[in-house]
Amino acid sequence: KKSEQELKDEEMELFTKYYVEWKGGRKSGNTSYTNIPRFYYRLPAEDEILLQKLREESRAVFLQRKSRELLDNEELQNLWFLLDKHQTSPMIGEEAMINYENFLKVGEKAGPKCKQFFTAKIFAKLLHNDPYGRISIMQFFNYVMRKG
């Protein structure tokens, strides 16, 4: 036979277990919160020279990688040439336009750095009140120059 204190302890343990489950708290075996990535790292102090050097080096490597992703002048000229070659008639005033089909063709020929710009989402973002469902080549090119 259990003592009164043991019964109270067991009751409290069961109550806590069921309450936590009911509240949606920690369930046994659920450790998804341990998979959340760390997003804040404190800046190294002045006396932590090695950490400061590591931060500077990692920043330099990051900037170099981002720089390699940018389109250089030759790639931009090639992109403009392809867009101009695949424009879809009729022109609206002086504005050259391109439809989605030709937009995708240019995306295939433009190269791997440009691939990120040839998506349906970007086409739709630049699509305005054109009765033929086209976008302005100049607007698209300006978008690439701003984002790339």
TrEMBL record:
Superkingdom of the organism of origin: Eukaryota
Main location: cytoplasm
Keyword Protease assigned: no
GO-annotated biological processes: B cell homeostasis; cortical cytoskeleton organization; microtubule cytoskeleton organization; positive regulation of B cell differentiation; regulation of dephosphorylation; T cell homeostasis
GO cellular component: centrosome; cytoplasm; spindle
Presence of the UniProt keyword Cytoplasm in the record: yes
Subcellular localization(s) per the UniProt record: Cytoplasm
Keywords: Cytoplasm
Protein name as annotated: Serine/threonine-protein phosphatase 2A regulatory subunit B'' subunit gamma
Encoding gene, per UniProt annotation: PPP2R3C
